[in-house]
Write a structure and sequence with these properties.
This protein has helices spanning 57-73, 81-97, 99-110, 114-135, 172-186, 200-212, 226-235, 248-260, 284-296, 316-328, 348-363, 395-398, 414-422, 437-446, 481-485; strands at 4-9, 14-19, 22-24, 27-29, 37-42, 47-53, 143-147, 151-159, 162-166, 189-193, 219-221, 241-245, 265-269, 275-278, 308-312, 367-370, 385-388, 405-411, 429-433, 451-454, 473-474, 487-495. Helix 2 runs antiparallel to helix 4 (114-135) and helix 4 packs parallel to helix 5 (172-186). The protein has two domains: 4-270 and 472-490, Aldehyde Dehydrogenase, Chain A, domain 1, CATH 3.40.605; 275-454, Aldehyde Dehydrogenase, Chain A, domain 2 (3-Layer(aba) Sandwich). The protein is globular. The strands form six sheets. Strands 16-17-18-15-14-19-20 form a seven-stranded mixed beta sheet, with helices on both faces. The protein is an alpha/beta fold.
């Protein structure tokens, strides 16, 4: 097959050439042994955009070998932090230059509104790269007193090596930046496996990696099906670390494969069933805005989606009225329309999954007061759905849906709210709204989540760590904490005065 495709970008009224091969050693190449393809579908039209090469296990081996060679020769400890910083900043500049094209391509392949992809996902990704470019020349260790007359010790924070990075389909560009930026900053090399549902922008970004001037093999991109490429990276004996964002079920498989192979370092950002508490002292209009954002943003396809909202009984009716009005105001439609706030879910499989949960909610006795009715037009659209009269053991309350489906319950006391919030196997995010400062401190401390938002929701910053507790994963992304995921600490003991007598 050809290793490129011509893609029409309707909003920009232009055609672009998209590479469709595997990106290894700064070149787009065919598979060494397979003719299998990945078909990229537009979820708004259900039509094929193009097909790209699907990497085989042997292709993963080639990509890992390229990354290892680069780590040993042109990257790793062989290039200064100043140079790493320069190249990462150059990459950020190029992404910013091509933001319109990347955003429209993201919208076509993922379904999210172009405006959201451009102004939020890409804007944040550029900032993320620049944040870690600032860290690249500031990777430092410690000098430790041992014996001032004879010895000292110091530590080095070395790049861990070759990193397999497996990213999801809900934020294809953003998750790429979250993974790539800290790894490059410390000197690691990368084999990137984008989701088989959304491979297109990762391939376009690979062109920019080469244009920025990164040496061959530093970043390699291998679109592949999860059970093939993802499994091969997790089990590979020459991969030093694997970073994964996705489902808890797949996270377990990756951790098991890492343990059974070479005990590679693992970081996992997994699922969530995040609670959102609204207390009677809250600014109800603002709380309703944030609760609507928590379930509508990215069409609910968010690991931190605030999919369980619990409201104090004294304000329940008033808040519910506000919330329904806010969610109704969200425009779900064509992602290329600047007025659109949400698009379709990413695929037919995800569409069927979300509707399965909606039907389960109805069957188990929850009441849908908004949504819950299928559209008759083309596209994998799911209108925001709000359930009330929920019970803790309902499927929609317990399981991650990954769509715009919200369960709303009530509580009487602060203690009951905390209990309801923590009654989950997940622990990624949580939110609370209150104008009682003491309550904010008590409840934020008691919530079992890696991130707690107070009087806001779902807002992340590149200098603030992000990650989960319980079955929502291990390790942290963003902030200085992410650097620890890509470094290994070496202690050097230096004897300059002690003489050893022998035998003992």
């Amino acid at each position: 097959m050809s290793l490129s495709a011509e893609i029409t970008l309707p909003r920009l009224n232009k055609k672009i050439t998209l590479p469709t091969g595997l990106f290894i050693n700064n070149e787009f190449v065919p598979s060494v042994d397979s003719k299998e393809l990945i078909h990229a579908i537009n979820p708004a039209t259900e039509e094929l955009i193009c097909s790209v090469v699907a990497a085989s296990v042997k292709d993963i081996d080639v990509a890992v070998a390229a990354a290892r060679q680069a780590f040993k020769t042109t990257w790793g400890k062989n290039v200064t932090g100043f140079e790493r910083s320069r190249l990462i900043n150059k990459l950020a500049d190029l992404i910013e230059r091509d933001a319109e094209e990347l955003a429209e391509l993201e919208s076509l392949n993922n379904g999210k509104p172009k405006r959201i992809a451009r102004d939020f996902d890409i804007g944040d990704s550029v900032q993320c790269l620049r944040y870690y470019a600032g860290w690249a020349d500031k990777i430092i260790g410690q000098t430790l007193e041992v014996d001032n007359k004879a010895k000292l010790a110091f530590t080095r924070h070395d790049p861990i090596g070759v990193c397999g990075q497996i990213i999801p389909w809900n934020y294809p560009i953003n998750m790429w930046a979250w993974k790539v930026a800290p790894a490059l900053a410390v000197g690691c090399t990368i084999v990137m496996k984008p989701s088989e549902l959304t491979p297109l922008t990762a391939l376009k970004l690979s062109e920019l990696v080469k244009e920025a001037g990164f040496p061959p093999g530093v970043v390699n991109t291998v679109p592949s099906y999860g059970p093939v490429g993802g499994a091969a990276l997790a089990a590979h004996l020459d991969v030093d670390k694997v970073a994964f964002t996705g489902s808890t079920i797949t996270g377990r498989k990756i951790m098991e494969a890492a343990a059974k192979s070479n005990l590679k370092k693992v970081s996992l950002e997994l699922g969530g069933k995040s609670p959102h508490l609204v207390f009677e002292s809250a600014d109800l209009d603002q709380a309703a805005n944030w609760a609507a954002l928590g379930i509508c943003y990215n069409s609910g396809q968010d690991c931190t989606a605030g999919s369980r909202v619990y409201v104090q009984d004294t304000i329940y009716d008033r808040f519910l009225e506000l919330l329904v009005a806010k969610v109704k105001a969200q425009v779900i439609g064509d992602g290329l329309d600047e007025r659109t706030g949400g698009g379709p879910v990413v695929s037919k499989g995800q569409y069927d999954r979300v509707w399965g949960y909606i039907e389960a909610g109805k069957k188990e006795g929850a009441q849908a007061i908004l949504g819950g009715v299928k559209r008759t037009t083309k596209g994998y659209y799911v209108d925001p759905t709000i359930f009330v009269n929920i019970k803790p053991d309902m499927t929609i309350v317990k399981e991650e849906i990954f769509g715009p489906v919200l369960s709303v319950g009530l509580f009487k006391t602060e203690e009951e709210a905390i209990t309801l919030a923590n009654e989950t196997s997940y622990g990624l995010g949580a939110g609370l709204h209150s104008n009682d400062a003491n309550q904010c401190m008590r409840v934020s401390s008691a919530l079992e989540a890696g991130t707690v938002w107070v009087n806001q929701y779902n807002i992340l910053n590149n200098n603030v760590p992000f990650g989960g507790k319980k079955q929502s994963g291990i390790g942290r992304e963003l902030g200085s904490y992410a650097l620890e995921e890509y470094t290994s600490v070496k202690a050097v003991h230096w004897n300059f005065g002690e003489k050893l007598t022998w035998p003992l």
